[in-house]
Predict the structure.
Amino acid sequence: MKKRGFTLIELLLTMGIIGAVAALTVPGLASNFSKSHIGNTLARTVEQIELGNRKIIETANMEYTQNGDSPTDTLGGISLKDIPHSETDASDTDSFAEAIQDVASSYWAVSELNLTDTEESAISSAKVYDGSADSEYTEELASSKKYKFAKIPANVYIASLCDSASNEDLSDADFVIAHVFIDVDGHGKGKNAFGRDLFIFDLHNDGTLEPYGKDSYETDCVKGNVINGGYACSARVMADGWKVNY
């Protein structure tokens, strides 16, 4: 009995069906992969920064104890404001702005980025969620220290807020000493937009990172409706267990 093979029309129909199914499913799979990458990278970055900060504080406390010093701030020990930095006095808020950037980097396993003027300009001109130009954080991003992580595909930009802080402020555990911008794709990649691949956190004096928008993400960053620049999406991702659900 002669075996019957597939006709050309049958093969074309099969290939067409496969192509149609792929066209419907592949974009969704790619989007899910991208969102998973964002959440995982953000979680790892925040964890590494906070772990580094704990090491900074533990090391500094140990040095104070060995030297017979007695910290006097309200934290029951020293905090990020007391980071030793060459011959700098930790209470000098002008020099502290540089101290937090330089010393923290060695504990976060990052290296400083060597950027061209064009790359610097691209970072400082980050966009808001809808793709329009951003102006709120342009100056902070422009003046920030910029680093690349060794084992995480992310960049971090540290903008110190301590130049005008008082010693009383710096002894408060909740005082925000810097804004930390996390670019999960690294410079020159992705959309460079808040809520998409760029996220902002407050760095507190006790070493913890708090996502921007903790009081507004439930209205400002919801599925299908991201408003007010997308800044609050940092808190949304963290609240949803490091998942991008918007």
Remarks:
- Confidence is low (pLDDT under 50) at residues 72-76, 84-97.
- The longest strand covers residues 176-183.
